[in-house]
Design brief:
Elements (H helix, E strand, L loop, with lengths): L1 H52 L2 H4 L3 E2 L4 E2 L2 H32 L2 H15 L3 H28 L14 H25 L3 H9 L4 H12 L1 H17 L2 H6 L17 H8 L6 H38 L1
Antiparallel strand pairs: 1-2
Amino acid sequence: MKKETSKWNIRVGLSGDFLFKGITVLFAFSILAILMLMLFEMTKESLPSIHNSGWGFVTGREWDAVAGSFGALPYIWGSVVSSILALLLATPLSVGAALFITEIAPKRLGGAVAALIELLAAIPSVIYGLWGILVMAPWLQRTVEPFLLEKFGFLPFFRGAPYGVSMLAAVFILMVMIIPIITSITKEVLLAVPAIQREAAIALGATRWETIRLAVLPYGKSGILGAVILGLGRAVGETMAVTMVIGNSPQISLSLLNPAYTMPSVIANEFAETTSKLHGSALMEIGLLLLGVTLVINILARLLLWGSTRKEGRA
């Protein structure tokens, strides 16, 4: 009787394992199926625009829905430049804040600062946009942009009129929005660094800064890089806040003081008011480009993480 019961339990256990494995495999591949379905539908809807413009859609600068001429280069330029500049400004601030929370601040103070930073990530983007258009943009117009014009106007990056709503405003608003993401992930990465790393450095006579530089940061390099790439993905896809402060002018300019446009912004502004099927198809193709850029960013992140972990493994 006991042998029969044990055999029955083994069969039930094996059936449960098989069922659980099948369900998890189904869930995993369902995500890939959703992604492929999105790519298929967006590509199908973009075909009229692809046939109409070809590669000129990516390289063209003119966007005229009435004439049926669509060039997305100004929008690609605005998305890429604003995201990269915001990332360059946000990364040192975020890593510095995470180091302060985990390595320098007392535990209670660090916990309070971490909670406040994580609270920033929960604020809706439209609130950031309202703050940007009502507070930040006028401040930039009155103080920062005139200063840049006066001191650095000889550079092509700071020429033009102080509009307030500009590429510079979009860069600042994106910087503020991605800081909580990078900081929170970097903090968790640094907390995962084994204490023995720090203790070994201190035992060898290292100062606090040397401990951070030689023992903590190299160990968490891969995780920090992943946090930065996630922040870049958030910046590229941000819509509402950027739309409210960037000025929405489809032009390519080196000057950060001039208005610009991004791919998510043009979709948000024009999709509900498309004038023709070709216009809607062109907007769908911009969405397809945006999805492609996001996928490329994530693939590059995986490759960078894989390369850095391989180097660490060899070391």
